[in-house]
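Q: Please design a sequence for this.
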């Protein structure tokens, strides 16, 4: 999941009525989608469920709730005003019935501007064929029309805040405090309030995400609401009892989050360090207020957020939130909270007046109040126990939410009496279904014939789309053979002199390059005329794809698998990438957040047209070797049986850092190095330098060059540790995930996309790029600490299977290509 610190939905405790009837019974009616022949309303064994959500444009707090509601009713049909999701994993690949707003101008980027039409639009969604309607509402979803024989249960994240208690704040922020536009806005909001009250009467049962929201529901609708806290992925956060000497705040930088107040407060406490994680429109203003004791980290991937949350002395939270999911996440790490004493925090944090406190509150959103609270915390930090914080956070777990919500629905629907909660299946384990009707025809383009990481990742895609994909390669080799074996249509066009162009530049004569470029474009154009979208997998392929797409008027999508910076590319190549981005790229798929950020920074490309999709790695080859003894694999590979073997798995290239591993071997006499890989792109001199190093340092008996190997799974399971030693930022780090699937502890260089995979000390170990001494020390520690290795292996395998499965990867790419063609 993506903890990107966007505004989250609220939470609250469950009331006793929601748990009055436990979820158990010897027989269970099924919950089925609607059919064209509608059976008797409420008939046991055929309960049809519709789920209505306001809008599907991102994955934030409300969508986390929706994800768990779908898990409770996996056969339900989905409805929404608009659906512009690219990653549909959390809705299990379900199709969504949308309103007419979906097709209005600028709906993708400015759907909120159509607020005046939303009441009308939600009423046009036809849910009459369903027995149960569940609305997930923070705006208008609860206004869907239902009949007297239908049960409508509304999970309310909040009544429409900008129409009720936040109207004046909304008008001020929108600069609509006076004039004709202000009068029109006030009239629209008045109409929406009247509509909101009227439609509340058609809801049979309200569920609030907190007592705070339940009071709002009572105030606005004059209705009681049961309270069921929203789900928090507590299991994604691990307890840490050892705290470092810094405080943390993490949030999207928007005014109501009050990050600026926290930063100003710590400016008055120069002896205390504050770390700030997050991004947003107030970033520059907050940076300007930060003193030398405040570290503004900006947006960070989940691994970094998790690391800082685990190590922080306390988490500081100054917003008035309906819930505040980050407050619970911090406690799940064993980190106490210093929070503004209003809103949802009062329900998720136990202050010192209660047994086993997990934090304390300040009374005002002011600098002085925050300073006083931090001082009070520092003087009594011994009162807060990490294990108590963790236990408190576990009250908000996703399994508990599913149990409570399903019990509430079952109690409200007579036909569901005796129904049992379906077994939970993680969304990424559900095969995503994309309709084959009007599915786009894809021309996939790759420059290489070798089986590198990019080619292995492309192979997963084209195998899934083989009925409507054709592949074009600019070179022949093992990749062509793999495509043939997979039954994928493939053509090889000779790239001529262009094959000698490298990322860092080349010495090909301009006239030859131009001649071969024209020939390559002409050949690819012939294949592209029958395609709906061009899918370029590598940088040279992207250049050809962008040109061809422009000429034949077909959208070109680049699957970016590089960090486009001066460390990886020459100045001419970077200029070409910028030119192609402006010329002909419709969309970009980045293999990590690091790759996306570098590309957007270089090209100024619209970040909304860049999606991050982690590579998918198939666990089957590793599972097939689960029962094969390591001794057998070592014998097959001619490796020593008793040695402590550390494996490196990548092509032999200076930036991949194999020399760092060899330097660590010199420092650690108990260690053997196994180098799997060969030089691919004119890097033979580097391979020769590695062999020379081995000879010069007399470590030939402890260094094993295996060259290119087809069976990476066998090689990885033959070693004790998998290392990743790149000395410049790695775009993704496929080898790391493979090492996790091989059930081997992983040590990786702390840079680039690697930190989006590895959580230091949790599912792997991170070391400084290029630091051979640090690497040698870390490997010696792992050799001596079996319990640490076991923990890294267990967590690594779990994360690799949950986050990097091939089904979700393929489905995400397929959906993006479909959306590009639709646009």
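A: Design:
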């Amino acid at each position: 999941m993506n903890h990107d610190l966007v505004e989250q939905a609220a939470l609250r405790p469950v009331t006793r009525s929601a748990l009055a009837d436990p979820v158990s019974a010897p027989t269970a009616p099924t919950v089925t989608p609607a059919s064209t022949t509608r059976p008797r309303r409420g008939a046991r064994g055929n309960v049809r469920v519709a789920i209505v959500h306001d809008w599907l444009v991102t994955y934030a707090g409300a969508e986390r709730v929706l994800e768990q509601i779908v898990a409770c009713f996996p056969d339900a049909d989905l409805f929404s005003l608009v659906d512009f999701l690219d990653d549909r994993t959390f809705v299990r690949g379900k199709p969504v019935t949308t309103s007419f707003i979906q097709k209005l101008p600028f709906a993708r980027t400015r759907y909120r501007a159509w607020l005046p039409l939303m009441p009308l639009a939600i009423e046009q969604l036809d849910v009459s064929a369903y027995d149960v309607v569940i609305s997930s509402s923070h705006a208008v979803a609860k206004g869907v029309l239902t009949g007297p024989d239908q049960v409508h249960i509304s999970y309310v994240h909040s009544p429409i805040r900008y129409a009720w208690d936040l109207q004046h704040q909304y008008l001020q922020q929108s600069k609509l405090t006076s004039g004709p536009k202000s009068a029109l806005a006030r009239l629209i909001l008045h109409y929406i309030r009247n509509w909101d009250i009227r439609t509340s009467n058609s809801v049979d049962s309200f569920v609030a995400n907190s007592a705070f929201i339940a009071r709002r529901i009572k105030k606005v609708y004059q209705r009681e609401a049961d309270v069921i806290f929203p789900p928090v992925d507590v299991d994604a956060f691990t307890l840490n009892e050892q705290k470092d000497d810094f405080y943390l705040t993490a949030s999207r930088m928007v005014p109501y989050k009050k990050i600026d107040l926290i930063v100003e407060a710590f400016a008055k406490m120069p002896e205390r360090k504050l770390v700030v994680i997050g991004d947003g429109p107030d970033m520059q203003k907050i940076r300007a207020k930060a003193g030398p004791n405040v570290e503004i980290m900006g947006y960070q991937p989940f691994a970094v957020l998790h690391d800082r949350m685990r190590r922080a002395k306390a988490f500081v939270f100054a917003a008035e939130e309906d819930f505040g999911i980050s407050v619970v996440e911090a406690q799940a790490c064993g980190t106490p909270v210093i929070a503004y004493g209003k809103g949802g925090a009062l329900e998720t944090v136990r202050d010192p007046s209660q047994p086993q406190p997990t934090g304390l509150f300040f009374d005002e959103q002011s600098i002085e109040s925050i300073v006083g609270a931090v001082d009070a915390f520092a003087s009594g930090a011994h009162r807060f126990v990490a294990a108590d914080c963790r236990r408190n956070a576990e009250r908000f777990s996703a399994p508990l939410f599913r149990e409570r919500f399903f019990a509430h629905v079952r109690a409200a629907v007579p036909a569901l009496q005796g129904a049992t909660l379906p077994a939970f299946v993680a969304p990424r384990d559900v095969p995503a279904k994309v309709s084959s009707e009007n599915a786009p025809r894809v021309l996939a383009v790759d420059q290489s014939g070798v089986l590198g990481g990019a080619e292995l990742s492309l192979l997963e895609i084209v195998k899934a789309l083989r009925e409507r994909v054709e592949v074009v390669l600019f070179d022949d080799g093992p990749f062509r053979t793999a495509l043939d074996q997979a039954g994928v249509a493939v053509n090889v066009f000779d790239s001529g002199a262009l094959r000698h162009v490298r990322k860092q530049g080349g010495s090909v004569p301009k006239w030859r390059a131009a001649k071969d470029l024209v020939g390559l474009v002409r050949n690819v154009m012939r294949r592209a005329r029958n395609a709906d979208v061009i899918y370029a997998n590598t940088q040279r392929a992207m250049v050809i794809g962008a040109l061809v797409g422009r000429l034949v008027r077909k959208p070109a999508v680049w699957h970016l698998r590089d960090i486009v910076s001066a460390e990886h590319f020459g100045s001419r190549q970077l200029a070409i990438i910028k030119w192609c981005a402006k010329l002909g790229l419709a969309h970009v798929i980045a293999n990590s957040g690091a790759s996306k950020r570098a590309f957007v920074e270089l090209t100024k490309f619209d970040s909304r047209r860049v999606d991050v999709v982690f590579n998918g790695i198939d666990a089957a080859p590793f599972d097939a070797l689960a029962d094969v003894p390591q001794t057998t694999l070592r014998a097959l590979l001619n490796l020593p049986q008793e040695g402590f073997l550390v494996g490196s798995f990548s092509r032999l290239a200076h930036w991949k850092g194999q020399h760092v591993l060899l330097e660590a071997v010199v420092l650690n006499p108990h260690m053997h190095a196994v180098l799997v890989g060969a030089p691919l792109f004119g890097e033979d001199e580097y391979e020769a330098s590695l062999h020379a190093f081995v000879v010069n340092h007399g470590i030939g008996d402890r260094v094993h060059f295996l060259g290119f190997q087809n069976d990476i799974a066998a090689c990885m399971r033959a070693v004790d540790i998998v290392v990743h030693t790149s000395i410049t930022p790695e775009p993704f780090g496929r080898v790391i995930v493979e090492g996790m699937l091989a059930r081997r502890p992983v040590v990786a260089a702390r840079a680039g996309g690697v930190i989006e995979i590895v959580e230091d000390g949790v599912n792997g170990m991170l070391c400084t790029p290029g630091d051979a001494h640090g690497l040698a020390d870390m490997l010696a520690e792992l050799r001596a600490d079996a319990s640490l290795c076991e923990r890294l292996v267990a967590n690594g395998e779990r994360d690799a299977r949950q986050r990097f499965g091939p089904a979700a990867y393929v489905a995400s790419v397929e959906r993006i290509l479909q959306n590009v063609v639709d646009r």
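Q: Thanks. Anything notable?
A: Residues 180-200 form the longest helix (21 residues). Confidence is low (pLDDT under 50) at residues 1-28, 32-44, 432-436.
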